[in-house]
Amino acid sequence: MSHNSFGHLFRITTWGESHGPAIGCVVDGCPPGIPLTEADIQGYLDKRKPGQSKYTTQRKEPDTVEILSGVFESEGGEQVTTGTPIALEIKNQDARSKDYGDIKDKFRPGHADYTYFLKYGLRDWRGSGRASARETAARVAGGAVARKVVPGLRVRGALVQVGPYEIDRGNWDWDEIDNNPFFCPDAKAARVWADFLDEVRKKGSSTGAVIEVVADGVPAGLGAPVYGKLDQDICSGLMSINAAKGVEIGAGFASAALSGEENADEMRMHPNGTPEFLSNNAGGILGGISTGQPVVARFAVKPTSSILTARRTIDTAGGDTEVSTKGRHDPCVGIRAVPIGEAMVAIVLADHYLRHRGQTGQD
Amino acid sequence: MSHNSFGHLFRITTWGESHGPAIGCVVDGCPPGIPLTEADIQGYLDKRKPGQSKYTTQRKEPDTVEILSGVFESEGGEQVTTGTPIALEIKNQDARSKDYGDIKDKFRPGHADYTYFLKYGLRDWRGSGRASARETAARVAGGAVARKVVPGLRVRGALVQVGPYEIDRGNWDWDEIDNNPFFCPDAKAARVWADFLDEVRKKGSSTGAVIEVVADGVPAGLGAPVYGKLDQDICSGLMSINAAKGVEIGAGFASAALSGEENADEMRMHPNGTPEFLSNNAGGILGGISTGQPVVARFAVKPTSSILTARRTIDTAGGDTEVSTKGRHDPCVGIRAVPIGEAMVAIVLADHYLRHRGQTGQD
Amino acid sequence: MSHNSFGHLFRITTWGESHGPAIGCVVDGCPPGIPLTEADIQGYLDKRKPGQSKYTTQRKEPDTVEILSGVFESEGGEQVTTGTPIALEIKNQDARSKDYGDIKDKFRPGHADYTYFLKYGLRDWRGSGRASARETAARVAGGAVARKVVPGLRVRGALVQVGPYEIDRGNWDWDEIDNNPFFCPDAKAARVWADFLDEVRKKGSSTGAVIEVVADGVPAGLGAPVYGKLDQDICSGLMSINAAKGVEIGAGFASAALSGEENADEMRMHPNGTPEFLSNNAGGILGGISTGQPVVARFAVKPTSSILTARRTIDTAGGDTEVSTKGRHDPCVGIRAVPIGEAMVAIVLADHYLRHRGQTGQD
Amino acid sequence: MSHNSFGHLFRITTWGESHGPAIGCVVDGCPPGIPLTEADIQGYLDKRKPGQSKYTTQRKEPDTVEILSGVFESEGGEQVTTGTPIALEIKNQDARSKDYGDIKDKFRPGHADYTYFLKYGLRDWRGSGRASARETAARVAGGAVARKVVPGLRVRGALVQVGPYEIDRGNWDWDEIDNNPFFCPDAKAARVWADFLDEVRKKGSSTGAVIEVVADGVPAGLGAPVYGKLDQDICSGLMSINAAKGVEIGAGFASAALSGEENADEMRMHPNGTPEFLSNNAGGILGGISTGQPVVARFAVKPTSSILTARRTIDTAGGDTEVSTKGRHDPCVGIRAVPIGEAMVAIVLADHYLRHRGQTGQD
């Protein structure tokens, strides 16, 4: 079962609502002896946290993580994991419930609060309760632990499309990521997005986006041929992110238009004796199992439903009405989805790394 | 863990290789008292089975299913499920292992046999062993049981793109599905595809495709807000299908380019007193929970790597070589993926229906 | 996987060490709309908490529980569950790590710290870390939620043997449970135990015990015939309690000596039209499924290995040595195991109740 | 979820009824490259199969196993596992449904058919359907695979009590096991049991028994401190066996009467540099983790409810009646439970071996 847990041998369980006292993540199955301090986690939380530019929600949260269990001082005086569950907790601080008073009885079109109400017969209308993107801070914390599980793993994400504007892949420069508030690897696209998002923000509107996550250093052999597929679990992880509406691996949807000749990633032996692929349409995964190439995944997020323009909707009493969202507002939730996507990919890779080691004895 | 099982309260476990004596599916968790005979399953297997037109592999398999457990004659003389595991078995008949002799020691570029070998240190090179699409017959059998679990559920699929050719959605007619060998809902597109696939087949090439699955009669409330999301599990199910490289729900990747105003599915109360959505960009799922609208999912499959044109590759001894595939050949695996996609969506819905009923007591 | 989680549709995940800042329990899958406050949980924690009599460890812990998520004020103003994960947290207060300094490098014979060290290559020697009975407070908190899930359920426990002294079942009086510090239903046995445990305590020794848990109001039909057996999961839950070495259901080990005639629980229709059993050797479970009779389970706990008398052992450097435990000390861990056993039985019943409702639609 | 599956990284899923065409077991997660033929499995099935002496049911089943998937001829020509699911199937042959006609509408007191009917609303009354001990042949087949997963593992079982007659542990001789029809390690006890069981059989009565399973060669470190306890999973596995009513590890229930001094297994360094325990009250498991000593588990089975003497019961129409069982009859189901208990212990150890290797990287 997986209501609020994700993963098997390496598993996260998250809890907490947008406007409760805290949110948290329990990381289970982490191998022992891995150096881990709050500082290892905080950097990733800082990337995700709101209010860092005018393009994301103005909620102010320090998002300070505490490790409440699962680490101990090793012989050498370093704090390391013990193999037991690592409880991570983040206090909520800037929860303004009053902002939500006017949507207490109305369903925002395109928002989870309608289905939530249908399922549970009640809902925590303050900032969407459990359906809030606030939960994703807990994943990012868990993902920071996951990154340390697979030796040599590096997981990086980038925003590659905002509204109708895609990056030019010829301009891709990972170093640009930190030079703009969008995690954009193309400096030119970042400038276009800045203008576009200014306009979106001023209108109180919102826009969708596409995020790409690339993992280097993934050992070959992770995954399984049928329902334990690595790409299946990556897609599951990315689709579990708020607002995600599509996921793809490698060439993805574009592969539908390719011929077998074009799509096949040919191989040659490198002079150093290791097999080499001449392309990566596969996105690093064939038959559900990693090839050793970089794993490449993308996911699309829809525009947030919290917008200033009034939309037709119904209320909890079953009457027609209109709703617009006045509180704090995220013109493009895709920006903050970048570190979240990285976290989910890292968690899946950590889980499959341990599963693979378990079943085959390979490191 | 999920190497070869899928689902939780309703769960399938499949087994079998392309060239072994049989394949099978164990369906666990099916509610008791549901009428079930082999005939209920056979129709779906017949839709998927190979050799039905010149556009799919010429392997001839009757794909006759046997129910080996889990049913019993009820008081009324009808055969019904008993609540215990339903074992479904399909004998393999047309397995020509010799066809594969020449690729025994070479890895097809873009094919699972390379990663399979890396992971397990050996591989069943006869027809790809476990990585063969043959496994999907077992899912289709399991999916036929799943369809009977949710009262009023109808799950239908269609091919909506073959190579570069998409259907015209204005021409969509479900009745056309059975009038062409492609499960194509657009009669005009079907003619274009026929010509295109003739050409592909003659060249010994292959092409990708996009499949759409639509489920009507899905009760509202299935799913959960975080890792038990209905869309997450549908994507996981569809990505577990051989050759799948991307999945999307509702507006999917297109939602990245939409504004919040465009994307929001507005609502009105129907005169009959039920809430009504004015559009379905959500694909029937908001915040991971079903809305009661039709659930709409699409997935892209890549072209098969088994093509006549020689491609550069390496062999199991670590030398450079070339490979082309001579045996039977599937110019567009996307065609047969239609009933497979339907099966996976049905399985996810059955599982979530039972989980929802368990947690909330709602039917 | 179940390193630190227990249950399926209703699932607890616990975290925390004896000497860390806190311990906690995440309850996942709880149905929505159930009234729940801290007070509902605190009473059970108070029964378990240490330092309540001279017969249990003198560690002083208020064991105050906080609910950090998963509840919300309902329309009527009452705090109810929302269907999302309920995070329960208990701060550690009286952790005297210095007490353990002298056993930092020695393994107590019969204690988890040896195997813990072998498995993880390190250990949190302060109060046994994760292997401490402190973790059981988190279960008791989770169990308090579980008790509210099955309508009409009552789960009660009693100590029925301390060292060699069993109760006289003819004297069983549930009202006696609260009249002595042992949860003993037999006033006479309680007096014998008091003398015996005084002696054990003065010697710095320890003793084993047997606990019985009885659940009334269990609906018929919970469980499954093979690996989803209700008794199997109860035994799994009880064996997961620290120091447990044996579990039994109904007549248990005594049934080995019975004849089929003696063991069979005969049935008659009650004048009110309901079936009635004339005995309960089955302990309320036949073929893995509840009968509707009270569910009766027992488990044995060994004496704690923390004793004053020196025992031969080895140290972490691989040398022979001796060890005795000086810190705070629990002469009979079986006493506090009573509310813990109740909690585990309640958790299993809640899980199976939801699973049964999911699969069969029965309430 | 675990209705019909058992285990995590190494998992069995069984299916089949007593009177259906076949029963089977799907083994998932078995490491690749392990030599495996039908002969490796058949020997264990032969030990369990009915009709081997006058002391077990006279049903005649050859219990011939077929491997339908998951193995392949390796380079060296040997048949080995491939890492994919191993489907094992056993045809039913001697199913005399007519024997059961007279109990079609009556519930045998102490038998699963009452609860089965309550849960599912119907039942396969022919030989108890899914609740039949016939299912255990599937486990024994799966257990034969499990035995090959842990290098150096040996799992042996013995009957240690029949009715009121226990063995004398001083007479224990593993070589005696094959010299009598009871898997009895004490030649003298075997003679007592023969007389006792002759009497039981002639009266058409039945008796309970206790089985002990001992596993040598268990690596230290398997298990986890809380809900992934090795002993917890062994107890779960043994309690899942038909008629089991109690389980214990090491000193088990007897440890309740021990003092801490008696119970502690003291340690010394062996001259060869390895730690040595001076006793094994722990049964090879401390704090849920294996110590490296032999793992010792026992379980009690109740007498079968199928007896010749009429017992009071009710019928499906809700009337009072009496029932006696005339068909084939098993005076002591404990005898055949010996290889079944071995199988379950082997399966748990295989699962934990792979889990431990996964989490810690230790072999």
TrEMBL record, chains A, B, C, D:
Name of protein: Chorismate synthase
Annotated FMN binding sites: 130-132, 242-243, 287, 302-306, 328
Pathway(s) it belongs to: Metabolic intermediate biosynthesis; chorismate biosynthesis; chorismate from D-erythrose 4-phosphate and phosphoenolpyruvate: step 7/7
EC identifiers of the protein: 4.2.3.5
Catalysed reaction equations from the record: 5-O-(1-carboxyvinyl)-3-phosphoshikimate = chorismate + phosphate
Gene3D superfamilies: Chorismate synthase AroC
Cofactor(s) recorded in Swiss-Prot or TrEMBL: FMNH2
Keywords: Amino-acid biosynthesis, Aromatic amino acid biosynthesis, FAD, Flavoprotein, FMN, Lyase, NADP
